[in-house]
């Protein structure tokens, strides 16, 4: 296996993982680009490259190139992890765009969980209502801060 093919496979897998992170949002309109999720995909791709290189070490002919590839993978992992933990590139709009899918996950799980206890169901319903309201508020703030017309928050949030 060539190193170029290996890293190409890792790159494609990283992009696929990034896209898959949105599969658990409640509604399609809750999918916003998230720098945080992009950094998470990057460190997952780096981590996957480290594991795969270690598992397939004997398949690569050059020890020197393998060590260099491992160093690149560790560096990518460390960069992604640092960026996720520091949130260094995340401003107020990026933060809201990351929070909308996050809140949407709470709606999905609270809506679809098999909850029979009335107290737990009341809590889940409260979470659904709160998350929808907060999504609508964030969408209105994003529109306003990006220079668009600041629409009034949609009460049902999607």
SSE blueprint and pairings:
Blueprint: H1 3-20, H2 35-55, H3 63-86, H4 92-112, H5 118-145
Give a description of the structure.
With 158 residues, this protein is mainly alpha-helical. It is 71% helix and 0% strand. The protein is built from five helices and no strands. Helix 1 packs antiparallel against helix 2. The longest helix has 28 residues. The radius of gyration is 20 Å and the shape is elongated. The model has no long low-confidence stretch (mean pLDDT 93).
Q: Quick recap of the structure?
A:
It comes from Paracoccus angustae. With 158 residues, the protein is mainly alpha-helical. The protein has helices at residues 3-20, 35-55, 63-86, 92-112, 118-145.
Strand proportion, as a percent range, falls in under 5%
Query: Structural class, from helix and strand content?
Result: mainly alpha
Gap between N and C termini: 47 Å
Would you identify the regions where 5 or more consecutive residues have pLDDT less than 50? Answer: none
- For the residues shown, what is the average pLDDT? 93
**How large, in whole angstroms, is the Cα Rg?**
20 Å
Q: Can you summarize the main beta sheet? A: none
Order of helices and strands: HHHHH
How does the overall form come out from the CA principal axes?
A: elongated
Helix content: over 70%
For the secondary structure, the number of strands is: 0
Q: So how many helices?
A: 5
């Amino acid at each position: 296996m060539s190193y170029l093919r290996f890293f190409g496979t890792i790159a494609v897998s990283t992009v696929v993982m990034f896209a898959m992170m949105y599969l658990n949002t409640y509604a399609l309109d809750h999918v916003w680009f998230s720098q945080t999720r992009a950094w998470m995909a990057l460190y997952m791709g780096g981590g996957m490259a480290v594991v795969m290189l270690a598992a397939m070490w004997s398949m690569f002919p050059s020890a020197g190139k393998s060590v260099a590839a491992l160093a690149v993978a560790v560096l990518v992992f460390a960069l992604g992890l640092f960026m996720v933990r520091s949130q260094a590139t995340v401003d107020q709009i990026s933060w809201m765009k990351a929070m909308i899918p996050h809140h949407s996950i709470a709606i999905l799980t609270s809506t679809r969980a098999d909850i029979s206890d009335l107290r737990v169901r009341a809590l889940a319903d409260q979470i659904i209502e709160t998350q929808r309201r907060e999504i609508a508020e964030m969408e209105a703030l994003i529109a306003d801060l990006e220079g668009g017309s600041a629409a009034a928050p949609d009460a049902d949030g999607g």
